[in-house]
Structure to design on (205 residues):
């Protein structure tokens, strides 16, 4: 009875792994679909199940590789977040120019590109973005998802101060491949450096 229960549990485990693999693979990149399935099926074949003796023999290296493939086939990063800031120099921006944050504190999921200043969404979900800027009066900033403006920041030129800290928080739904950036809206915008101005984003759920 014990052996029968064990073999049934093992068979159920293998089936669960197989269907789990196939299900996860369906949401991976299309060009890798067939290769991924075949690799996993070949590995499953290396697990030898002897019904006549009611025993199970495992190729340990193949089993470890199978488990590794199961974790890796969940192609979604476990977490997506980034936190970047302007560090090296004051930014003097033209109209329509993307703000490039050069100091990367964190970039889990590798969505933010410091060469372009653009975050590319790797995983669909609901995200929170925070833009903060130590700027001179007259600044106009936009937080954009693709071509859509989802948030704005502004300091009127009528403010009689040298610098002022402004901030904006937005929660939006994204799909893979969506681009998020901070864009200067008008000529003459200036952003202070030394990590007083930043851009942060995180996948919430």
């Amino acid at each position: 009875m014990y052996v029968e229960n064990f073999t049934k549990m093992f068979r159920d485990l293998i089936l669960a792994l197989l269907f789990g693999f196939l299900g996860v693979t369906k949401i991976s990149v299309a060009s890798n679909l067939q290769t991924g399935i075949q690799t996993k099926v070949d590995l499953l074949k290396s697990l030898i199940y002897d019904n006549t003796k009611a025993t199970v023999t495992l190729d340990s290296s193949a089993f470890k590789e199978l488990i590794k493939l199961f974790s890796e086939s969940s192609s979604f990063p476990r977490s997506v977040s980034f936190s970047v800031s302007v560090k090296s120099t004051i930014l003097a921006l033209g109209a329509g120019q993307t703000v490039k944050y050069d100091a990367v504190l964190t970039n889990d999921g590798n969505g933010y590109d410091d060469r372009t200043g653009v975050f590319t969404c790797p995983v669909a979900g609901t995200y929170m973005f925070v833009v903060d800027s130590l700027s001179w009066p007259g600044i106009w900033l936009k937080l954009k998802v693709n071509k859509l403006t989802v948030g704005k920041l502004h300091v009127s030129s009528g403010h009689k101060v040298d610098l002022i800290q402004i901030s904006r928080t937005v929660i939006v739904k994204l799909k893979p491949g969506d681009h998020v950036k901070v864009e200067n809206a008008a000529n003459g915008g200036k952003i202070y450096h030394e990590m007083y101005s930043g851009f942060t984003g995180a996948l919430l759920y």
Summary: Confidence is low (pLDDT under 50) at residues 21-34, 47-52. Residues 39 and 161 are 64 Å apart (CA to CA).
